[in-house]
Design brief:
- It is a single chain.
- By secondary structure, the protein is mainly α.
- It is 77% helix and 1% strand.
- It is built from 17 helices and 2 strands.
- The chain has a two-stranded antiparallel sheet.
- Helix 3 (35-52) packs across helix 11 and helix 8 crosses helix 9 (168-196).
- The chain is globular and about 65 Å long.
- The protein starts with 9 loop residues before the first helix and ends with a helix.
């Protein structure tokens, strides 16, 4: 049953709702555009506050139930639910219209990205950079990188898709399909890769994280979405727009909390952040390039290949941060590794957008023979 459309009228009405609820202008919001700056300020603020008010932050860390930190849980919901409001599961009906592009993205997202990140973590964190990293955090850093790559991005990909003039129906249907798969596949993939990396998997906490940070927010968002759409598309979009700053603010507050606990480690070894960024950058280049090339080989239109490459490369860092804190704690290397993903997300993805746009002529030259054959 579709939860994305609330009025009768079949696939046509679902398409109207999907198109209307998708952002229509190729712009990026003020908060999103300068996300790297805000994260940098959160690092400084968190480190300073952690040194000045250690007792306060230890009290916050103690507010746990079943290894879930209550303040962080609330912030994650405020962060994630507005993003999930944009997801129209009725758009799954569009999957058949973009079989090749969606097939490529699914392959990269679920069969390549998590495993390539685990491999890059093993190469760089366990071997190449190991002498420069604290030995007791090596496994935790690798775990954080795996969590970062184990789920594709849900919200920011709409922005990236618009900036590369992507097909909105493809983006909506791909994100809806990825979110459906994520509910089932996230925990097994994380457990498998952590196990292969010889990292103990706390299954109860992992499953609790999936329920709290995926299943429940998706359910709440879809019920709320249905209620908002009953009042009209304009009302729905106005509410989504108003919620955007709250979502970003919740992310930034979470980061301040995290860096308040990570302060000593960062002061002692500031190079750690740069070292953790290396496998993340390589992973983005590898997966976006692979998705873009495969789409070109398969004759997929550029307006589909662009968002396919961006979805294939981006990460659901909000989920990764929340799960890392639940599994390993505020002070863990895993939590720090996921935050590095947040730090570099915007500039790196904007660079991928630029490459996709500038290479459009090269990309479409490969499609010309097929066009001439088909008239």
């Amino acid at each position: 049953m579709s939860t994305g459309s609330t009025t009768p009228g079949g696939p046509e009405m679902s398409n109207v709702v999907a198109a209307a609820t998708a952002p229509s202008l190729p712009t990026i919001g003020f908060f999103e555009r300068y996300l790297t700056v805000w994260v940098g300020l959160c690092i400084v603020t968190g480190v300073v506050l952690g040194q000045l008010l250690p007792g306060l932050f230890h009290s916050i860390a103690a507010l746990e139930v079943a290894r879930v930190n209550i303040p962080v849980g609330i912030l994650i919901w405020v962060m994630i639910i507005p993003m999930l409001l944009k997801i129209d599961f009725g758009a799954l009906g569009q999957v058949k219209s973009h079989v090749r592009g969606i097939g490529v993205t699914l392959f990269v997202n679920w069969a390549v990205k998590p495993f390539s990140m685990a491999l890059l973590g093993w190469i760089f964190i366990r071997h190449v950079f190991a002498p420069m990293l604290p030995a007791d955090q090596i496994d935790s850093y690798i775990a954080g990188l795996i969590l970062l790559a184990a789920a594709p991005c849900t919200a920011m990909v709409f922005v990236w898709s618009q900036l590369c003039k992507g097909d909105p129906y493809f983006t909506l249907s791909q994100v809806a399909l990825n979110d459906s798969i994520m509910v089932i596949a996230f925990a097994p993939i994380v457990a498998l890769l952590l196990g292969l990396s010889s990292i103990t998997v706390p299954w109860d906490t992992l499953l609790t994280s999936v329920v709290l940070y995926i299943v429940v927010p998706v359910a709440i968002a879809q019920v709320w979405r249905k209620s908002l759409l009953e009042k009209g598309i304009t009302h729905f979009q106005a509410v989504v727009d108003r919620l955007g700053p709250y979502s970003i603010s919740a992310l930034l507050l979470t980061l301040v909390l995290l860096f308040a606990f990570q302060g000593e480690a960062i002061i002692e070894q500031p190079l750690v952040i740069a070292l953790l960024a290396v496998p993340i950058l390589i992973q983005v280049i590898l997966n976006s390039g692979l998705a873009y090339w495969l789409n070109r080989r398969l004759g997929v239109r550029h307006c589909v290949a662009g968002p396919s490459a961006l979805i294939g490369a981006s990460n659901f860092f909000e989920l990764a941060v929340a799960t890392a804190i639940s599994l390993f704690g505020f002070k863990s290397g895993a939590a720090l590794a996921t935050v590095v993903g947040v730090l570099i997300e915007v500039p790196v993805m904007l660079a991928v957008v630029a490459v996709v746009n500038r290479s459009q002529g090269w990309y479409e030259r490969a499609l010309e023979p097929a066009r001439s054959i088909h008239g």
